[in-house]
Amino acid sequence: MNITRLIATHRKSLWVGFFILLIAFVLTFPLYGGVYPTSVLTTMLVYAILAVSWTMFSGTTGYMSLAPAAFFGTGIYVMALLQNYLPFPVIMVVAGLISFALAILLGLVTLRLKGIYFTIFSFGLVVFIGNVINYIEAAMFHRHGWVFNLMDETTLLYIMFGLAVVTVLAAYFIGRSRLGLAMRSIGGNEEAAEHMGIDTTRIKVLTFAISAIFMGAAGVVVAPSLSYSNAGIAFSVVYSFVPIVAALVGGMGHLSGPVIGALLYGFLEKMLKIQFLTYFQLGFGIIMVAVILFLPGGIIGLVPLLRDKLGGVIAKLRKGSEAGQHANT
Amino acid sequence: MAQAETLLGLVLIGILGGAVYGLMAVGLSLQIGVCRVLNVSHGEFVMLGAVLTFVFKQLGINPLLAPVVIGPLLFGLGFLFQMTLFRGVKARARSPAAFEGNALLVAFGLMYIISNMARIKWGAVSLPSHYLTHGVSFLGVPIEFNLIVGFAVAAVLGIAVYLFLTRSRLGRAIRATAEDPPTAGLMGVNTNTILALCFGLGALLAGVAGTMISLRTDVNTAIGFNNTVIALIIVTLGGLGSVPGSFIAGIIIGIVSMLVAGLWESILIVPVYYGMLMILLLVRPSGILGKK
Predict the structure, then answer these.
(1) Is A106 helix (H, G, I), strand (E, B) or coil?
(2) Do A120 and B110 touch (CB under 8 A)?
(3) Cα distance from B178 to chain A (closest Cα, Å)?
(4) What element of type H or E holds B138?
(5) Backbone angles phi, psi at B219, to 5 degrees
(6) Most CB atoms within 10 A, among A84, A140, A306, B240?
(7) How many domains does chain B have?
(8) How far apart are CA B176 and CA B52, in angstroms?
(9) CB A115 within 8 A of CB B100
(10) Element (H or E) spanning B144, and its range?
(11) From B234, which residue of chain A is nearest by alpha-carbon distance?
């Protein structure tokens, strides 16, 4: 039986099986994984959420957003302010809505403009918000940072996993909807899209804001594991860079690309960052440049390439065996 | 610091220091305007200029002579980057928009590479090369002499670049390439060389600005990112591709930074820049002197 055909005909059930296995793996992981590996898995999922939501907007429209850290930090701060007043899920919703509103505001100011202005503006936005909050805290409330209530690592993992699933599903359904089509046409040729009757500014602002919801909510879930945070930690530009690196290395052609890239990045970061931070970042810079130059499709871009190669080898083998059979008869 | 905290003093220091910011931004403006590369590693070249000045000072070379070596060095580096990396990206890009996106990401990678290599080499410690720090009286305001030197260097280089772009044959080729690369190519301009030249020149200007910054402030290997942010804001304020615009915006930013730091709170400098940028983008998206 031909393997590739088998995969093609049962694609749907294979995916379902894969997801059941994945869910079972994540849910049971804390039982045998231990506390630290559980937190590693949570970190990997955070990056997956950031990367998927970043790709949702920037990957499809081509507008490079460098603002994820702004929304992520907003989530951390919403958690800091509300942790003693509201239940956890409500805080996640509040953070998502605030990030949404912030993104609408930012989008209305900058997304009417050419892509380059949008990128420039989003580049320093994180520094802007961080410094403003730092000033407000220090000058008005004489306060330096926040301490978070401890939460169980297992619970955090489950919540993060749930959020990651929701993010991926949202990205999947938006990608298939009319909205997704409109976004891709903007990415393809914005002027043409506009002439086709697409309200490009509205589409851009809306999807930018939708992608911000998940980043904000992810910040809320991350906060307890930080145990302490201030404006500098919460609004660290690193969180803007990670989704880009992850999406790029994983590949943006398919939903699984950013996820794979983020999981890989998160895992390597946790393993290497503590001892070799500088070399780790240097390596990522080199990988980034190399990927764009030599592997524009990322890791998942390799799949069709390999399949073609493999398919060729299989076909050759079959031809060989068929020839052999003919010779026998 | 024997510097006056009067309003006049703050404005004066802002103007003198802002010209160096302007110089730095002219470099970035060339890279964005001509090469179409949103070079987020620009600040890293400023950092290299500043740190190498320290290295040369350790070797006993006068910091003011350091740019003579650092300039060509960074020019070569920028030239090489454009010739290999960005040219490669351009050859593979399907559309100009795709090129801009990918070029930004390559610049991102370069930012990671340069800053971390510098950090591996020189660590995260302060690398001071203060020079000419004696106070002089300028318009009745006591200021450090290196401020005047920095302003003079920035002004001379800025005017030179402006004249080069507007008066020379090569400058005309550069402007043609910025306007319409394919047509410029058809007219006999070697666009690949022109782009590499512009990128190199941008890196050179960043390096010289870095040297001037290192004369009067403490520098280390981590200053790149902040300088990138400042340069990007100035370029946007002044208008992409405009040399005088970059200088005017640089001086405005210089004055604002001194006023905010002197009268209010230094942590609010970047937020105020952002407020200005936001207002400008709403009112006049093409910048102060940019073309509509």
Answers:
(1) helix
(2) no
(3) 16
(4) strand B135-138
(5) -125, 160
(6) B240
(7) 1
(8) 34
(9) yes
(10) strand B141-144
(11) A120
Which residue, B14, B38, B18, is CA-closest to B28?
B38
Is any Cβ of chain A less than 8 angstroms from the Cβ of B12? no
* Subunit contact A296:B92, Cβ cutoff 8 A: yes
Domain assignment of residue B26, yes or no: yes
Judge: B271–A117 Cβ closer than 8 Å, yes or no.
no
CATH code (residue B268) = 1.10.3470
**Domain for residue B89, yes or no?**
yes
Residue that has been written with the tokens 């998927």 in this structure: A52
Handedness of CA B32, B36, B39, B42 (dihedral sign): negative
Asked if residue B2 belongs to a domain, the reply is no
- B290, part of any domain: no
**What's the residue count for chain B?**
292
- Give yes or no for B124 touching A (CB within 8 A): no
Cβ of B276 under 8 Å from any chain A Cβ?
Answer: no
What does the DSSP 8-state code read for residue B142?
A: E
Phi-psi category of A228—alpha, beta or left, where left has phi over 0 and alpha has psi -120 to 50? beta
Q: Which residues of A touch B (CB under 8 A)?
A: 62, 64, 109-110, 112-113, 115-117, 119-121, 123-125, 127-128, 131-132, 134-135, 138-139, 189-190, 237, 241, 244, 248, 278-279, 281-282, 284-289, 292-293, 296
Minimum-distance CB partner of B38 among A110, A119, A190: A119
Distances (CA, A) of A151 to A38, A98, A134, A217: 13, 23, 26, 16
Report ipTM (2 d.p.). Answer: 0.83
> Can you tell me which residue has the tokens 């609004």?
A235
CA distances B124 to A231, A278, A316, B116, B220, Å, are 22, 11, 57, 10, 6
Chain A hits for B102, Cβ within 8 Å: 292, 296
The whole-model pTM stands at: 0.86
> Is the Cβ pair A293, B225 closer than 8 Å?
no
CATH architecture, domain defined by A36-230+238-324? Orthogonal Bundle (1.10)
Q: Pairing mode, if any, of strands B141-144 and B135-138? A: antiparallel
Give dist(CA B161, CA B24) in Å, integer. 12
Expressed as residue numbers, the domain containing B150 is: 7-283
What radius of gyration do chain A's Cα atoms show? 22
Q: Which of B102, B225, B281 sits opposite A121 (nearest CB)?
A: B281
- The CA-atom distances, in angstroms, between A36 and each of A30, A152, B9 are 10, 12, 55
Q: With an 8 Å Cβ cutoff, is B283 touching chain A?
A: no
Residue A47: both structure tokens together: 């990056």
**pLDDT in single tens digits along all 329 residues of chain A:** 566 677 777 778 888 888 888 888 888 888 888 888 888 899 999 999 999 999 999 888 888 888 999 999 999 999 999 988 999 899 999 999 999 999 999 888 887 777 778 888 887 788 888 888 888 888 888 877 888 888 888 888 999 999 999 999 999 999 889 888 888 888 888 888 888 888 888 888 999 999 999 999 999 999 988 888 888 888 888 888 889 888 888 888 788 889 999 999 888 888 887 777 788 888 888 988 988 888 888 888 888 778 777 777 777 777 766 665 665 55
